[in-house]
Amino acid sequence: MGATRGGTCLLNVPSWRGRRYLEFSAFKLGMSPAAEMDDHKTYYDVRDLWPLLVRAGFLPSEIECFSHKFGLNTFAACRLKR
């Protein structure tokens, strides 16, 4: 039996706008886990994430990428039909 082709990859990442609020909440107000914020290696807006997804092999027509949560996060749904 061969491998099944296709699938969907869902990504939800913090945005650059979100960085300011997430770090303020964690480091100044103590309302979010500081260790979780320290684990963030980088932040992505749509203009940052979309080209990475294309370079990873997703076709532009297979990518839906948008900001949400008042611009604090960036979400992408990438589909492989091959």
Quick rundown:
It is built from 3 helices and 3 strands, in the order βαααββ.
Largest sheet: 3 strands, antiparallel
Q: On the 0-100 scale, what is the average pLDDT?
A: 88
Question: Spatial order of the strands in the main sheet?
Answer: 1-3-2
Helix content, binned percent: 25-40%
SSE succession: EHHHEE
Strand content: 25-35%
Q: What sort of overall outline do the alpha carbons produce when their principal axes are compared? A: elongated
Uncertain residue segments: none
Task: From the alpha carbons, calculate the radius of gyration and give it in angstroms.
Answer: 16 Å
Q: Count every beta strand, where a strand is a DSSP E run of 2 or more residues.
A: 3
Total helical segments: 3
Distance between the termini: 17 Å
SS-based structural class? alpha+beta
Number of domains: 1
Describe the structure in your own words.
It is a single chain. This protein has three helices and three strands, in the order βαααββ. The chain is of the alpha+beta class. The chain has one domain. A three-stranded antiparallel sheet has the order 1-3-2. The chain starts with 6 loop residues before the first strand and ends with a strand. The mean pLDDT is 88.
Give the secondary structure arrangement, pairings included:
Blueprint: E1 7-14, H1 16-28, H2 34-38, H3 46-55, E2 63-68, E3 73-80
Antiparallel strand pairs: 1-3, 2-3
